Amino acid sequence: MELSLARVDYLQVGVTAQKTMRLLPASGKKATQKVVVGDQDGVITCFGIKKGEAVPVFKTLPGQKISRLELGGALNTPQEKIFVAIGSEVRGFTKRGKQFLSFETNLTESIKAMYVHISGADLFLCASYIYNHYCDCKDQHYYLSGDKINDVLCLPVDKVNCITPVLACQDRVLRVLQGSDLLYEAEVPGPPTVLALNNGNGGDSGEEILYGTSDGKLGLIQITGSKPIPKWEIGNEKKRGGILCIDSFDIVGDGVKELLVGRDDGMLEIYNFESADDPGLRYDHALSESIASIQGGCVGKDGYDEILASTYSGWLTGLTTEPVHREGGSGEELKLSQEMQSKISSLRNELEHLQMKVLQEREKYQQSSQSSSAVSSVPAFSVNDKFTLNKDDASYSLILEVQTAIDNVLVQSDVPIDLLDVDKNSAVVSFSSCDSEPNSNFLLATYRCQANTTRLELKVRSIEGQYGTLQAYVTPRIQPKTCQVHQYQIKPLSLHQRTHSIDHDRPMNTLTLKGQFSFAEIHSWVVFCLPEVPEKTPAGESITFYFQNTFLGTQLESTYRKGEGCFKSDNISTISILKDVLSKEATKRKINLNISYDINEESVRHTLKLIHPKLEYQQLLAKKVHLIDALRELQVHEGNVDFLLPKYRSILEEADQLLEEYKRQPAHLERLYGMITDLFIDKFKFKGTNVKTKVPLLLEILDGCDQDGLIAFFEAA
């Protein structure tokens, strides 16, 4: 059966955060449900739909922004009490809008994640690194996490018989707690952003948890009393956005719940289960902005199920099973068109009224601006931004989302970076020439957006060893013209990504630091050098982090404590960058460092073997691309190309794909040449020899692309 869903836009509230919209339970079996949503203006809006129009039930006054909204209630009763997290406070409202709870927690920062247990008495709250469990508003348990907490939930007590909270943490693990202690960690393939109970109840065992990651992966894991059991995992083959919300709902009506997924690029997906451990994508629909919350239920018309999504800018959009166009000339068709006509005329009237109001306000503004005492206020607007490293192509994605349409975005960088092509990007980019010497300005690019663009995605690739700041100046289409600046740090080892484990059998180079520095000081230096390291100093006396270079596949192990740090990598250039940056940071703080290193000659050969296949592939691609124009000219003159060798015929057949790939990866070959040159210079730098005069010879050998010749040159030099 083909799934046919029609889109309906119901209402727009203020900007919404992740997991701030829920459907209240229905009063009858097929009755419509009320929608409750909290926005960043601090307003809770509860409404129902009658004859296609939103009818308000209640609306609270504005205040601090709402970061989470959950439903709760006593065991075996409808879950219709509304709980919201506002700053460090939790408030409770009835379904009619009467406030019955105001609980000021002892958290010093805002609540980032909240879960209300079915019992209604247990409340699980998380700030950035701190987890607290309250029972009847009394503090029960506390846990300090090693990295930022993105979401929290608890397994259903009626099935598992004990309180088992699960934290989704930024360092790619789910932390399973027992009381105030860590029971165990479950590794997941990306930084988990959202958790949900499978089927809404944890499955038959009550132990099954669905997770979504910031790099778009989806998985199911069973949290048993002793260890995690991964059930299935779906990669992100289509390179879609990160997952922000998950729900389970039977939209098809076959008695089996489908999986509803909302992503930060506006993709809404429905997965169904052909077999228990193999979900398949059944349906998808693209919205123009990120989906903050998703729910399945009956909203627009009784008897018709639908999927309701709330987007970043506050739109509540439904995908309903109710057929919009009915065939034939029945009386029902006539009734529908009359209903439509009355709706269209009421919208026209509303639009005219708004246009009049805008004109009046504009005139009022113009008149008041003539007076000398008038001050023009800068309109506030919120920007939702995300700057993340993609493992697949070793590039950074910068996603900017604004609550109103974007006019233009100016991107400026004080370090050399490459801007890469993004398929989804419809903005027109223009580059300005910039002087890199006095102002250290390496990039100035302007993206001019088309009308109604609220989300812009850019891709950049940095060069390891060159660090600084990337700035984005965001100007939306609002009057008076105003702009916000957002800054993103490009770190010295910017292409490294945290990983759970490394291969200890590789030949490793070691850098050891000793000196009069504290644990917090060396941790701050590591945070400065490497991405994905928590800013907070870890608990305990020492810590070990593992990293992988997303471009080359080389690895890094960093272990440090008060007064000592040890860094091991199979790439000499990584060790060289660390040595330079760490010495610079220590000198800034007037700390004397004792630096020693142990260089493994075998590691150079090993790194060259890792780089070489990439080098060969890129050189071949460049050669093919250079031949395309000449081969096309031959084709035009000769009429047919049967006389050409098969390899040249295949270049002509694949010309479009080859050009597309070459365009998507500009300067890829130069980057590889640069890495090999750095490796050559760094190898001899540790021996105290300057080999910069031999670099032209090295480049000649690289053009020849002979692996053995390259290794021999490195060893002979």
UniProtKB/TrEMBL annotation:
Keywords in alphabetical order: Coiled coil
InterPro entries: Bardet-Biedl_syndrome_7_prot (IPR016575), BBS7_GAE_dom (IPR056334), BBS7_hairpin (IPR056335), BBS7_pf_dom (IPR056333), Beta-prop_BBS7 (IPR056332), WD40_repeat_dom_sf (IPR036322)
Stretches assigned to coiled coil: 337-364
BBS7 platform domain sequence ranges: 496-598
A GO cellular-component term linked to this record: ciliary basal body
Taxonomic superkingdom: Eukaryota
Domain BBS7 GAE residues, every copy: 379-488
Keyword Coiled coil annotated: yes
Record-level GO BP terms: intracellular protein localization; non-motile cilium assembly
Stored Pfam families: BBS7_GAE, BBS7_hp, BBS7_pf, Beta-prop_BBS7
Domain BBS7 beta-propeller: 21-321
Record-annotated BBS7 helical hairpin domain positions: 601-714
Name by which UniProt lists this protein: BBS7 protein
Gene: Bbs7
